[in-house]
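Design request, C-alpha cells follow.
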C-alpha cells in the first residue's frame, strides 16, 4: 500500500510499504478514505514533542471503509463506513472500566511513536483498528466530514468537563481549529455571551462566523475593560483555553470570573508560567481536558444532522502524495490554513 512515512524529522515520503495484516481477532482492516492533519502531527513533525519519532506513519483523524474483519469482530462487517477513536484504550484497566477511556493506563494514540510505544497511524491506504474504538458513520456524513469527528470530539469533551449553565457568559481563547469547534458547540448550549480571544485578525473574523458574539485581540490594552463592561464587572463563568502557552493561559485567567473555571485543552508548550496568586485568591478552578471520552456518538449525530457544520473549517483536501507540501505549509503557518484533509 501507499503510505506517507515520516522517515526523518520534517521529511515525509509517500512510499510503498507492506499492507498491514490482521493479527488480532478483534481488529478490522480499514481502507482509509480521508485523513486529516492534526496540529499535534504538525508540532510533532520537527521532533520538538518527541511524540512522532521517525520512522512513523502519523495521523489519527480519519474515516474509511472496512475491508476485512477479524474472526471475533461482532458488530462490524466488510463495507461498513467508519471512523474511530484516536485513543486506543485497553478496555480492562480501572479507568476504562469506569468509562474514562481517555485516561486508560495502557493508552496508545494512533500515529504516535514515543519512548514507550510506536503505533502507526492513518496517513496510508490502510490501517488496522480495534473493533472497540470503531464508530459507524451515520447517513448523510461524508468521509471528509467524518475525519473531523475526532477534533469535534476533543472540543466536545472540553465542554463536557465544565459545561456552561443556561445564560452563563463564556470565552474561548485561541480560535484555531479546536477553538472554533468549541465556539460552534458552545453556541447552542448557552444564551449568554460567547467571546473569542485571538491574536490573529482573520481568525477573529472566522470566530464571529462560528458563534462568537465578540472577538477581541487579547493584546488590546482595554480588552479586560471591554469584557468587564459587557458582563457588568462579573467577567466570565467559564473559559476554554485552546492554545496551551503562557500568554493565552494568562489571558484565560484574567477574563474568568472569581470562582470560575478555566478548561485547558491546548498544550503547545509543555511548561507554562502560572500567576498562582490570581488563581488561589480568586479561587479559579483549572481543569485539564484530554482527548475524548464518549463524545463520538454525539458529535457524529450533530454533524450528520447539520447542527454542527464542519465544512467551513476544512481549508483544503489534497492527495496523500502531497503530504510533505501541506505539512510544510501548516508548519510554516502559511495561508492561515485550518484543517487540511489528505485523501489516500
Ligand atoms: Zn487530533
Ligand atoms: Zn484501559
Amino acid at each position: 500500500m501507499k503510505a506517507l512515512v515520516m522517515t526523518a524529522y520534517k521529511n515525509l515520503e509517500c512510499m510503498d510499504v507492506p499492507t498491514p495484516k490482521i493479527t488480532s481477532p478483534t481488529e478490522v482492516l480499514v481502507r482509509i478514505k480521508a485523513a486529516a492533519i492534526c496540529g499535534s502531527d504538525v508540532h510533532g513533525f520537527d521532533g520538538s514533542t518527541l511524540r512522532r519519532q521517525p520512522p512513523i506513519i502519523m495521523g489519527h483523524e480519519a474515516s474509511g471503509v472496512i475491508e476485512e474483519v477479524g474472526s471475533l469482530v461482532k458488530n462490524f462487517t466488510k463495507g461498513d463506513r467508519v471512523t474511530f477513536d484516536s485513543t486506543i484504550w485497553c478496555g480492562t484497566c480501572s479507568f476504562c472500566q469506569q468509562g474514562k477511556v481517555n485516561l486508560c493506563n495502557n493508552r496508545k494514540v494512533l500515529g504516535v511513536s514515543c519512548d514507550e510505544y510506536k503505533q502507526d497511524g492513518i496517513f496510508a491506504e490502510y490501517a488496522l483498528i480495534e473493533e472497540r474504538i470503531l464508530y459507524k458513520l451515520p447517513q448523510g456524513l461524508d468521509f471528509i466530514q467524518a475525519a473531523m469527528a475526532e477534533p469535534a470530539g476533543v472540543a466536545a469533551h472540553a465542554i463536557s468537563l465544565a459545561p456552561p449553565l443556561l445564560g452563563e457568559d463564556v470565552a474561548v481563547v485561541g480560535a484555531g481549529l479546536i477553538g472554533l469547534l468549541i465556539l460552534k458547540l458552545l453556541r447552542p448550549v448557552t444564551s449568554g455571551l460567547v467571546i473569542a480571544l485571538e491574536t490573529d485578525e482573520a481568525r477573529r473574523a472566522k470566530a464571529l462566523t462560528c458563534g462568537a458574539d465578540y472577538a477581541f485581540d487579547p493584546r488590546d490594552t482595554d480588552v479586560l475593560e471591554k469584557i468587564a463592561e459587557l458582563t457588568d464587572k462579573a467577567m466570565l463563568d467559564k473559559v476554554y483555553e485552546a492554545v496551551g502557552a503562557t500568554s493565552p493561559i494568562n489571558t484565560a485567567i484574567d477574563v474568568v470570573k472569581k470562582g470560575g473555571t478555566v478548561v485547558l485543552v491546548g498544550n503547545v508548550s509543555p511548561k507554562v508560567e502560572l500567576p498562582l496568586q490570581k488563581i488561589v485568591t480568586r479561587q479559579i478552578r483549572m481543569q485539564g481536558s484530554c482527548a475524548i471520552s464518549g463524545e463520538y456518538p454525539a458529535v457524529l449525530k450533530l454533524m450528520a444532522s447539520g447542527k454542527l457544520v464542519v465544512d467551513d473549517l476544512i481549508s483544503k483536501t489534497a492527495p496523500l502524495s502531497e503530504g510533505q507540501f501541506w505539512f510544510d505549509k501548516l508548519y510554516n503557518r502559511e495561508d492561515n490554513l485550518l484543517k487540511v484533509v489528505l485523501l489516500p
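Comment from the thread starter after seeing the answer: thanks! The first strand starts at residue 2 and ends at 8.
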